[in-house]
Amino acid sequence: MSEWKVKRFWNSAQAVATETGFAVQLDGRPVRTPAKALLEVPTEALAQAAAAEWDAQTEAVNPETMPITCAVNAAIDKVSAQQAEVAEMLAAYGDTDLTCYRAAQPKELVDRQMAAWDPLLDWAADRYGARLIPVEGVIHQPQSAPALARLAAPLAAMTAFELTAMHDLVCLSGSLVIGLAAYDGAMPVDDLWSRSRIDEDWQVQQWGEDEEAAAQAALKRDAFLAAARFLMLTQGPAVAE
């Protein structure tokens, strides 16, 4: 038996201003999240992007083609109810940050990690006053509490929509520093993703590419870029001119 799917029942989707933000309407009827909350977002750009996804649906609604809408649903239904917990979970990545765990050899890999990750650690020190210390090997070595607190501070101030994007940026890269660099626009998003893949790319160079692993890596990259786009739309102008 085929799985039941929601069929398109509307002619057009529009982003509309509300008293507290922007919503998406289908033929004048408001879209709601899976938990039945009003799908309302902080910026017009984000509402327009979500509306465009609804407009692009054909006979049956396919959530896999609606990453913006899915992220909005997650922000409203899930993250907004536990913002402090999500921020705390993401902050914990700072103590095991990808950029801090370095190979002892071979020299070429050591040099690649240094070239990719030292500028990120320098940026975090300059931007947030948080100096993380790189170590050799994979055994956990705690970072200083003051540095971790400084990296956690911006997370605590983020909206549920920003934290939703940060969740993917940090978890997919394995680095709070990389996530914050994306949040601040410190480096191009493609560049940040490449910097998170130094070890994996090295392994591919040494042993060749596994087809399944390559497919998974491509999916992760797409998700990372989608999260960055969602973040950008979330940070757009809150009020239409």
Task: Explain the overall architecture.
By secondary structure, this protein is an alpha+beta fold. It folds into 2 domains: 54 residues, ATP12-like (2-Layer Sandwich), CATH 3.30.2180; 154 residues, ATP12-like fold (Orthogonal Bundle). 54% of the residues lie in helices and 7% in strands. It contains 10 helices and 6 strands. Strands 1, 2, 3 and 4 form a 4-stranded antiparallel sheet that branches. α1 packs across α2 and α4 packs across α7. The longest helix is centred in the last third of the chain and has 24 residues. The radius of gyration is 20 Å and the shape is globular. The model has no long low-confidence stretch (mean pLDDT 93).
CATH homologous superfamily heading of the largest domain: ATP12 ATPase
The first-to-last residue Cα distance is 50 Å
* CATH topology grouping of the largest domain: ATP12-like fold
Helix- and strand-based class? Answer: alpha+beta
Order of helices and strands: EEEEHHHEHEHHHHHH
Based on CA atoms alone, the radius of gyration comes out at 20 Å
- How much strand? 5-15%
Helix content range? 40-55%
What is the strand tally? 6
